[in-house]
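Changelog note: in this version the structure field was regenerated for every chain. One regenerated record is shown below for reference.
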Amino acid sequence: MTETPPIDTDAPIDIPLGSGPDAPRLSITRARRPATATAQVIDHEGLPREVEVPGEHALTVYLDKHEVVTLMTLGQAPEALIMGYLRNQGLVESLTDLCSVHVDWSTGACAVTTRSQRPPTERMAKRTVTTGCGQGTMFGNWLEELRPLDTDASLPVATLDAALARILALDTIYKRSGSVHGCALLHNTPEAPLLYHVEDVGRHNAVDAITGFMWLDEETGQGKIFYTTGRLTSEMVMKAVQMRVPFLVSRSGLTQMALALAQEMGVTLICRARVGRHLVYTHPHRITRTPE
């Protein structure tokens, strides 16, 4: 199997976190990895073929020199992934708390420094293993910390179908090599413009990366549509609540805990979603249909 060199030659850039000459700045790398590698296979007729397989890389996160977690990732947006992970876990509360996010693939590590330099040990003391692809982990009393959505947003079926058609038309790593999940955030307007689309080896990684991009861009989830290729679990619902996204859409199914949590937290779950057909499990009053 062959792989091109890592795309990590760019030096870190400084991003201002606010306006004015005294605004804090974030030093961040842009260390993408190649999306796929090539492999030699023998097909059903006994003939040799060259195919693409998605990458998978271990990335260990250090927060103020404390080891937090090792994530297995495609490496398409590692800095956004780490930022979203830290935010969703409650390990970093504010974007201005971040001083630097530096990914180094030669060591398989991401060094995150904050301005507070507070050890994350207290929140990390309580650990929940989740049903993320492989195994995921949530730190802290995450169920007790969720705030239900209070929204009057509605989603026309035509907009939902437009969003699904837009995602279907994307040139994706999945179409080339399979074996990855994709997540997307879209505007809830008639043409459903795409804000972000991220693919990774696990859907929980992809949603964390989108959270990271939203954080950097100061984008909110209010009224928007979040789409995932994977099943909807309680962890996915929790992250939708954290992003304040009212519409969570999957081409797959859901779990009982996801159903109960979404009902309680005010998230509309739409599963088995294809253009022209879907199943609405919670808060169906938000889905509007044009009378024939």
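Spot check on this record: The first strand starts at residue 13 and ends at 16. The CA atoms of residues 139 and 153 lie 31 Å apart.
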